[in-house]
Amino acid sequence: MTRTWLLPSHLVEAARTGALDGAEGPRPRRTARDWVVDTCLFLLAAFVGLLAAETSARYNSEAVTLADQIVGALACVALWLRRRWPVGLAVTLSVVSVVAPTAAGALLASLFSVAVRRPFRQVAGIGLLAIAASTVQVFVRPDPETGVPLGIALGVVVVLLVTAWGMLVRSRRRLVEALRDRALRAEAEAELRVEQAQRAAREAIAREMHDVLAHRLTLLSVHAGALEFRPDAPPEQIARAAGVIRDSAHEALQDLREIIGVLRSPGEGAEDRPQPTLATLDTLVAEVRGAGMKVVLDSAVTDPDTVPVATGRTVYRIAQEALTNARKHAPGAEVTVTVRGRPGDGLTVDVRNAAPSGPVTDVPGSGQGLIGLTERATLAGGRLDHGPAPDGGFAVHAWLPWPA
């Protein structure tokens, strides 16, 4: 059965747009949260740019200060493109910040965006470029208040902090995505397990219904067919056939009620009817004999109650299905049921019938009975073989484990 895994919609969108592998491409539409984050970063970059512009105004001419302010404003506006081109924007702002200190805030914001959205290799390259740009800026546009050594140290520390912060956010986002994906996978697997359990339960009930009802309904069909083809039979035979039909119908209703009771919840009136075991095999043989079938039971198990309940029930079902098939396909033939075994060696059951001696009544069948018996024996840890016998009859042989 093919399993279909469900992925979160944002992962599907990210895979489509290349957001997870670092590829440039069209970005999804901004959400309300994206607008809030972008606005906050814009304001933060503008605040840092104003501080740098104020410092530039104290030590530079009005023309240089005006140029710094214009470049800083353009750099802040360019931040609105960071979601579409984060790498290109970070490289551009790194170069611009060498000559324009007012672009430092926008550079840090773009560097944070790269650390959040791109793999470590790209982040490391952009981070080294930003460190180099801040170092060169100290010499191109020195700040008399900090000096060269402190300016270089501050630039390196700030770039590393922003990069680490962005990588931390990226790791947390990936962790949340992985947990969400795992939860969806677990939910899908749980639904699949429930569906498989329901299917297994339905198949078990269907097998049990076939094994139980096929025997009763075959009796009904055989004797009803006899009444149809022998309307002039003696009254005693007609009365006996009618009695078998009545008893079989009653037992079929009881068995059907028992199986349906399995589907009910506890306390809904399900009957606790005893399940068949090896000890009730004599009752089954007596029942089919009463219906006019020739059956010989040869059981070497002296104490059937010592046989495990599940194993005894499986033997009963195998004998019941084999007798039902013999009645349908070999009417009038003698059937021999042989049971052998002891603890430690296992339990064997053989059901053999000779070739039919008369015409075979057309009794409908699904052809799944022997398949179900084979599966039942396999689930019990045993095996079952069946096929035509050398004398033209049919034989069923099964072995089941019987622990010591």
From TrEMBL:
CDD domains: HATPase_UhpB-NarQ-NarX-like. The chain crosses the membrane at residues 35-52, 64-81, 87-111, 123-140, 146-168. Residues 180-207 form a coiled coil. It catalyses: ATP + protein L-histidine = ADP + protein N-phospho-L-histidine. Residues 202-266 form the Signal transduction histidine kinase subgroup 3 dimerisation and phosphoacceptor domain. Residues 313-402 form the Histidine kinase/HSP90-like ATPase domain. Its EC number is 2.7.13.3. Residues 32-173 form the DUF7134 domain. One of its GO terms (molecular function) is kinase activity. Keywords: ATP-binding, Coiled coil, Kinase, Membrane, Nucleotide-binding, Phosphoprotein, Transferase, Transmembrane, Transmembrane helix, Two-component regulatory system. It comes from the Bacteria. It holds the Pfam family DUF7134. This is histidine kinase. It comes from Streptomyces roseicoloratus.
